[in-house]
Amino acid sequence: MNNTDKKRLLRDMLFSRRFEEHCYVGYVERKIGGFLHLYPGQEACAHGVMAAAKPGFDYVITGYRDHVHAMLSGADPKAVMAELYGKETGTCKGRGGSMHIFDVEHRFMGGYALVGGPFPLAAGMAKAIKLKGGEEIAICFLGDAANNQGSFHEALNMASVWKLPVLYVCENNLYGIGTRIDRSTAVLDQYKRVAGYNIPSEQVDGQDIEIVYKAAQKAVDHVRSGKGPYFLELMTYRYRGHSMSDSNTYRSKDEEKEWIERDPINILRERLIKAKVLTMAEFKAMDKEILDEIDNQIVPFAEQSPEPDVAELEKYLFAENDPWVTGGAQGGAS
Amino acid sequence: MAEIRFWEAIRRAHDEEMANDPLVIAMGEDIGVAGGTYKATQGLYDKYGPERIIDTPISENGYTGLGIGASFLGVRPIIEIMSVNFAWLALDQIANSAVKVRYMSGGQLTAPVVIRSPGGTAHQLGAQHSARMEKVFMGIAGLRVVTPSNPRQAYGMLKSAVRCNDPVFIYEHELMYNMKGEVPDAEFFHPLVGSEVAREGKDVTLFGYNISVHWCLEAAKLLADKHGINCEVVDLYCLSPLDRAGIKKSVSKTHRAVIVEEAEPAVGVGAEVMAIINEECFFELDAAPKRVSAVNIPIPYNHALEKATIPHAKDVVKAVRAMMGK
Ligand SMILES: Cc1ncc(C[n+]2csc(CCOP(=O)(O)OP(=O)(O)O)c2C)c(N)n1
Ligand SMILES: [Mg+2]
After folding, report:
1. Which helix or strand (DSSP H or E) is residue B248 part of?
2. DSSP sequence for A68-82
3. How far is A52 from chain B (nearest CA, A)?
4. Which of the four, A21, A62, A200, B155, has the lowest number of CB atoms within 10 Å?
5. Do B163 and A328 count as a contact with CB atoms less than 8 A apart?
């Protein structure tokens, strides 16, 4: 990674931070409904891994905290914001919402709200890649608490038995909603849990993007070279409550402060300033540019876009005009 | 036209579809090396190899989800769940992933999986191997549910289901795999919607599906031979969406309806067909519709108790005679 790359990563992380902060505002203003899970604090995880992968080529799947992962795959921020606003111009035409962003053209295969749901789906995408003989890999981002679902154990076992090209990234932010990891989980180091499935794994600092990037490169190389699945655990923290309806009273202010001192954006910014690659003025200009794009392009696009047509309520349930439903393109029943 | 067994019909459909498209795969417990619990994939492991005939671990939700994920990328998995009783464990992936991705992605993604599973009450298998789960699957929006009553349907429906772009659940019956029936030698595709008149009649319509079609046919014969009642039998091979037009057509002709289901009555096929009759052709009725259903208990082990739980042709005869006052 050269200095230009690092500056770009810094800008991209800052963009994600500001995008999510606007979602907060949109939610408070009741323009965004439903459950909203924000990403501030964890930026180095998705940004670092996706910098080591091939966005738009590799297949990515995740949970409900999915806006940033979708945009990193190539989804247009305007379409993501429009989706949160429930608009027809949204990534999913307003049918998905915050927890269900999809951009299949860019191989972002969805955000899923059932904790643990994507584990087997990712293994299945990897099975398809293997069957078709492609160079892609499947990448599944989920949280620490998801690893207590049966689907984690079922999927990782199968991925290992069948040597599937899938990278599991565990963003360990120490909590599943309000339950701290040591109160729910017998083994705190998540990377150790996959030893039972004979899957190589590593745990690294998820706040320093250069560390994440390096670890992810190793992980991606392993998976892409045909050696089977890999599990990467990134130690991180979310600043806000689990979702917008979370009071966040279960953690101490000291703990929060400790983590905020290791903010992923600040870490990289300070390093670049120290190396004289960046000045504070440049950083501020960058931030202004981002806020300008969000306030003057992204949000207005979402606000001004049309609502879906209620007449199309039942569209997208089934494939349209599928000849095989009525007995086939070849003439029907005998 | 050859007479073959139900399992042979399913096996033939697998074989033809796998030969036709290299992205068609089959997966399930003991389907490969062991040849399948009901022989639906017998011999196919040797022909297509372990990458396409996949022996899975005992992880119903896991392998169902894996098949669904593979289908996102154009693979067409035929997933066998050894028994519907085990499909409860896979409901998460079926009901939360497969049937919802198209809708919640605004039409971008589809999960063209086929899930086949035998259900019903066989011979003294006990409460945990005798579930009838059709009502559960019928209640899931976005899932096509079909249920063959003979080898011809079993063959043709699996063929169509593999090619269909929606998720399809094929509900088979434990007791029917050895049933023989005629299947055309030439390839064909059976519709995944509609219903079929299995016997023409004018006095009362018996609605059945899967094994209960056979109880209806047996009862219709007895009623014609002994009681002079001429029954029409309608095979509801598609349970979701139910064939409203077909139900209306037959009831408008006979003006009477009896629905025969192997499952418990609550929230079931009978209840649903009655609702459709109410909505579509209430004023055509000459008598209140009846349903013949199982007793609402877990299936007991004891042979006599088990038999008393599930409807039989004689129960259908009784219901029809009461309705006709004969
Ligand atoms: C199957 C299921 N059970 C419970 C929930 C409610 N729930 C939503 S997120 C969550 C915590 C998940 O924590 P983790 O996997 O660590 O991810 P994080 O939110 O920390 O990123 C819970 C319990 C759910 N959505 N799905
Ligand atoms: Mg967590």
Report:
1. helix B244-254
2. HHHHHHT--HHHHHH
3. 23
4. A21
5. yes
Q: What is the ipTM of this complex?
A: 0.96
The pair of structure tokens assigned to A73 is: 């795959």
Task: Among B155, B189, B192, B237, pick the best mutation site for testing chain A contact (most A Cβ within 10 A).
Answer: B189
- Tokens for A198? 């004979």
For the stretch B305-308, contacts whose Cβ atoms lie closer than 8 Å and that sit 24 or more positions apart, written own/partner, are B306/B121, B306/B124, B306/B130
Distance, in Å, from the CA atom of A155 to the CA atom of A152, rounded to the nearest integer, reads 5
pLDDT in tens, chain B (326 residues): 899 999 999 999 999 999 999 999 999 999 999 999 999 999 999 999 999 999 999 999 999 999 999 999 999 999 999 999 999 999 999 999 999 999 999 999 999 999 999 999 999 999 999 999 999 999 999 999 999 999 999 999 999 999 999 999 999 999 999 999 999 999 999 999 999 999 999 999 999 999 999 999 999 999 999 999 999 999 999 999 999 999 999 999 999 999 999 999 999 999 999 999 999 999 999 999 999 999 999 999 999 999 999 999 999 999 999 999 98
Domains of chain B (ranges, CATH numbers): 2-183 (3.40.50.970), 196-324 (3.40.50.920)
Q: Which of A217, A271, A166, A202 is nearest to A50 (CA)?
A: A217
Give the Å distance between the CA of A96 and the centre of ligand 2: 22
pTM over 0.95: yes
Nearest CA distance, A275 vs chain B (angstrom): 44
Residues A154, B192: C-beta atoms closer than 8 Å: no
| Minimal Cβ distance to B189: which of A94, A151, A324 | A324
> Which mutation among A68, A121, A175, A177 tests ligand 1's pocket best, with the greatest number of atoms within 8 A of CB?
A177
Assign a CATH topology to domain A3-326: Rossmann fold (3.40.50)
- H/E stretch holding B4 reads strand B2-5
Give residue A80 CA to ligand 2 midpoint distance, Å.
Answer: 23
